[in-house]
Amino acid sequence: KVVILSLLMYPVLKSLALQLHSAVTGSYISGTHSVAFINCLNEQIAKDIARAIMDKKLAACVNILPKSSALYFWKGELEESTEILLLVKTRTSKIGELSNYVRSIHPFEIPEIISLPIDQGNPLYLKWIEESVPRD
């Protein structure tokens, strides 16, 4: 039982140790923040979703990238369209809430909402993300 409990507690203890180390040294813990990618049909929808994300304080920043061409399979057919892409910078711990919220307001049946953890970056920018997005 002690071995099982130790194995179950390891991720929690490791996380706490990393947070303590980060607090003491001021170093960034890789993966603390993420960039989410969200596709939108047009610029107005993109702006509306970006503003809604910011109003809910689910991100520090949302970039709206101009039209791009997309090729994809939908219901067995090859489709081609133009899309607007949102780049959302946020805490990794907010990705689930962000995804649920965007799905609730997005007009697509299956919107693209994917994220990648931020490994490293400008420490001052990463600190700004931390300060801009409430923990919970």
Task: State the main characteristics.
136 residues; alpha+beta; Alpha-Beta Plaits; 2 domains; 31% strand; globular; Ion_tolerance_CutA; CUTA protein; signal; N-reg_PII/ATP_PRibTrfase_C
CATH topology of the largest domain: Alpha-Beta Plaits
CATH class of the largest domain: Alpha Beta
Sum up the overall morphology in one term. globular
How many domains? 2
Low-confidence stretches: none
Level-2 CATH architecture of the largest domain: 2-Layer Sandwich
Q: Beta-strand level of the residues, as a percent range? A: 25-35%
Structural class: alpha+beta
* Main sheet properties: 4 strands, antiparallel
Helix/strand order, N-terminal first: HEHEEHEH
Strand order of the largest sheet: 2-3-1-4
Mean pLDDT metric: 89
The percentage helix is: 40-55%
Distance between the termini: 33 Å
Task: Summarize the structure in words.
Helices cover 43% and strands 31% of the residues. By secondary structure, the protein is α+β, with helices and mostly antiparallel strands. It folds into 2 domains: 1-30, no CATH class; 31-132, Alpha-Beta Plaits (2-Layer Sandwich). It has a 4-stranded antiparallel beta sheet with strand order 2-3-1-4. Strand 2 (61-74) and strand 3 (77-91) form a beta hairpin. The protein is globular. It starts with a helix and ends with a helix. The model has no long low-confidence stretch (mean pLDDT 89).
